[in-house]
Design a protein that fits this description.
The complex is a heterodimer of chains A (223) and B (283). Chain A has 223 residues and is mainly alpha-helical. Chain A contains twelve helices and no strands. In chain A, helix 3 runs antiparallel to helix 4. The termini of chain A are far apart. Chain B has 283 residues and is mostly helical. Chain B contains 15 helices and no strands. In chain B, helix 10 packs parallel to helix 12 and helix 12 runs parallel beside helix 14. The radius of gyration of chain B is 19 Å and the shape is globular. The chains are: A mainly alpha (223), B mainly alpha (283). At the A-B interface, helix 8, helix 10 and helix 12 of A face helix 14 and helix 15 of B.
């Protein structure tokens, strides 16, 4: 059986699955085959309203990695927020900075909270070093600006996600960008004092503790 | 796949609290509308005050007065304005409402009783405990579905939740039989209250078993019960449940805040960190 014939069969199994459990099994098989030809189908599955299948599809897309990014960006489903949320989770996990623009606008303006949360987390986790050096700082500053905005959102879970994103951003290149880190730590100190939700304050305390641990390690290694 | 609304939207049986087609109001307008000749404007005003007022004494007084309203009646003899007034008073944190709400527990309208019980739980005055316990007397037998109506003879679920909120350990013996009530929602309310009041893991495990139920709607509500119960061993099961992530976030928030409050002064425990690590994966 040639590789392309195998891909076709796996794709057809997904398209012709006639029950939720068959769909899940077919998606898992396609995802595990790690075939680039399967990417459009895996992305389509994100919109099928079957969470188990969607999670398997996300795993497959994440394992394929960078080659999934352009198709994911092209196939963002403006009409299905469930599909969108899964797309952003995949993009966030792959962490390719090409997703920056799409994550920024989703984090700020998508109407669906699940999408905004996934985008906020993703903004903290991008592999900035994949950008040319001269673009890196601006990109990080754009992420910072959006995440700071989100840290003031009326919805507690969005603020929570913003903290996760800010922590990721602060941890990404602490030595390279101390000003960024300082701004984030200052915002964390404010949140710890003023946020009305105990859960949000709790997440900031954890972020502060974990960032502190990184700083301590860095200091220890600087001798 | 819906984004979740607060838990009360998923309870069966009670009429919707938010009327449709309402205009934006000011506080003065809403207050005035409580005695408007148009009964639907009164009903909307009572709902509006519960949502937007912040406990101004004039508002509380007017809502207490509305608990005796006789003008707004349904065909079956219910008191819609009283229902909304009772609901609103629970949110305004003014204990002056307690005596009137206690009287509402004897209203002929099930939904007025139910709203009053819920609000008494929210207001937190332990003096209500005996009256709430009285609602559970007669046990499961006295709490059956009324033929031709979509509700039970008594608002058992609301009474159990209020007693849980009031930390009424003296009610444990009265609540326990409701673990065997024919309606699952009531069983779950009993299990949750029993866990909160006794801290015995068997009741937390009971809810975990219910979580594996096949019905999505029931799973969502059990998930929220687990979150509110403080039963920490449920954290991993919550994060993996076949329920929308937004519900899981709310449930884990409940566990998290419960954990954070256990230390005085409030601080970060390994258990709290474990819950947050799970919440991070759900973003």
């Amino acid at each position: 059986m040639t590789k392309s014939a195998g891909a076709l069969e796996l794709i057809q199994s997904v398209e012709q699955a006639d029950s939720p459990s068959r769909l899940v099994a077919a998606v898992r098989a396609l995802a595990e085959a790690r075939l680039e030809a399967g990417i459009p189908t895996l992305i389509t599955v994100l919109g099928y309203n079957n969470p188990e299948a969607a999670v398997a599809a996300v795993e497959g897309l994440v394992h394929l990695g960078d080659v999934s990014v352009a198709p994911l960006l092209e196939q963002i489903d403006d009409y299905n927020y469930g599909a969108r949320a899964y797309s952003f989770r995949a993009l966030a996990a792959i962490a390719d900075p090409r997703a920056l623009d799409v994550l920024l606008s989703a984090a700020e303006a998508d109407f669906a909270p699940s999408v905004r949360r996934a985008a906020a987390k993703g903004l903290g986790n991008l592999r900035w070093f994949q950008l040319p050096a001269e673009q890196r700082q601006l990109a990080q500053e754009r992420a910072l600006k959006t995440l700071l905005l989100l840290s003031n959102d009326p919805e507690w879970a969005i603020r929570y996600a913003a903290i996760v994103g800010l922590q990721g951003l602060a941890a990404s290149e602490p030595a390279a960008n101390p000003d960024l880190v300082e701004q984030i730590l200052a915002r964390f100190a404010q949140i710890a004092q003023t946020d009305t939700d105990l859960a949000v304050r709790g997440r900031v305390w954890m972020a502060q503790e974990q960032l502190n641990a990184i700083n301590t390690q860095l200091s220890a290694h600087s001798y | 796949m819906l984004e979740p609304s607060p838990k009360q939207d998923f309870e069966s049986g009670s009429s919707p609290a938010e009327p449709s087609g309402g205009e934006p109001l000011t506080l003065e307008q809403a207050l005035a509308n409580l005695s408007h000749p148009d009964l639907s404007l009164r009903y909307y005003a009572a709902w509006w005050l519960g949502k937007f007022a912040t406990g101004e004494p004039a508002v509380v007084d007017a809502l207490i007065a509305a608990l005796d309203d006789e003008a707004d009646r349904t065909e079956l003899g219910g008191y819609p304005l009283r229902r909304n007034a009772a609901r609103a008073l629970g949110k305004l944190a003014d204990l002056r409402a307690v005596p009137a709400l206690l009287r509402c527990l004897e209203c002929s309208d099930f939904y007025v009783q139910e709203a009053a019980a819920q609000s008494l739980g929210m207001l937190g005055d332990p003096a209500c405990i005996p009256s709430l316990m009285k609602l559970l007397e007669g046990g499961v037998a006295a709490s059956q579905l009324i033929p031709g109506r979509p509700h039970l003879a008594k608002p058992s679920e609301a009474a159990i939740e209020a007693l849980e909120a009031l930390k009424a350990t003296e009610a444990i013996g009265l609540i326990k039989p409701f673990l065997e009530h024919p309606i699952q929602r009531v069983q779950h309310a009993a299990a949750r209250a029993m866990y909160v009041l006794t801290q015995e893991p068997v009741y937390g495990r009971r809810l975990l078993e219910a979580l594996a139920a096949s019905d999505l709607k029931m799973r969502r509500s059990v998930l929220l019960d687990l979150g509110a119960s403080g039963y920490l061993p449920a954290a991993e099961a919550i994060s993996q449940a076949a329920v929308e992530n937004s519900f899981k976030m709310i449930a884990l928030k409940g566990l998290l805040e419960n954990q954070l409050k256990q230390r005085s002064p409030i601080s970060l425990s390994p258990e709290a960190q474990r819950v947050m690590t799970l919440m991070d994966t759900l973003l």
